[in-house]
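Case study 2.
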Amino acid sequence: DPTPTPTPTPVVKKFSNILPTVASGNRIASTVIRSVFASPDGKTIYAAVGNDASDNPGGLYIATKNLDGTYTFIKETFINSDLLATDVTGVTASSDGTVIYVTSDNDLTGTGRGLYAVGYGGGVFILHKSVPRNNLMSSVAVSSDLQNIAVGMYDTPALDPPPFTAATAGGLAISANGGTSYSSKVCSVMPGCSVNSVAMLSDGSIVYAAIGSPGPAVPFPATYGGTVSTCKTGGFFSVTKVAGVYNGYDTKLVTDGLVSNNAYSIAVSSDGNTVYVGTDSGLSIMYKAGGVYTFVNKTTANSALPSNIIYSIFSSADGKTAYLGTAAGLSIMTTNADSTYSFVNKAAADGLTGSIIYSVFAASDGSIYVGTEDGLFVLNP
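Prediction:
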């Protein structure tokens, strides 16, 4: 009998840290990746770098993916005569990459924090000084035509001690005119003032916010931003654009089916019919039909989630796959045809160092980008 052909050992792909080396001269001092975003073609990656626990400064990476799978990095540290904004918390960009938006959360006095935008290509980042309230910003979302901009702002009692005022409390700032002016949404219409994450439909018609609770049992690490709300409960909030004005409000709390009012992260499908809310107590999946939400909650008790603490979420366009950044690694959840849910978890054994996943983005070319306190990781298809 002929000798049987041995079965080849399957190649197991792992995440790799793609941050530039210190020797390259393109390395930012901090390795804490707070937010990551990729261009529609998957060839340009933007990574927001926050200050680390030793207060080493962050900034912004803009990386080009080369044909051989390597990456070419340039860095922005935002230190010049106009601004000082090293603790960068959020990033997004126009589809053609000509305009980039970043938010910052520096524990500094003055105007060196807030929302910055640039017409990129050697341009200078410019502070959107029309954004109201405290400028301690968590995240940013922009519509495809760049006319609608939503910015989430923290309540930060450690940095802005009582009494809290309209100038220091958090909230949601929204522009419908490309950033020329902003309106603020605060506790009078929202279930809290500490906005940890924002999302927006591509046409700008609806803005979504994940809002933290007062005195959360499991707060964000103190160095990396606030979650404490000085008013009300926290939870899910959305505002719909009606006749050109953002004033159609909706709030969802535990009493409505949300797994927890202490919401950290949010993501939405392209049609707005599937919303994912990450909290300190698990994941809420909100399905919208006929203007009404139904809830499915997933926790470590009823699923393969590696942790109930969900710091970041990315949703596929159809809402069928959610990439969940947890306190114990990455969890990729798929909604099956029979309405069951499957989980694939990735952690240190898969190349991810740093257990807390602050950011995650699945690019159109199949690459998955993950930001931790230890760097920017990629799993290529």
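The CA atoms of residues 370 and 376 lie 6 Å apart.
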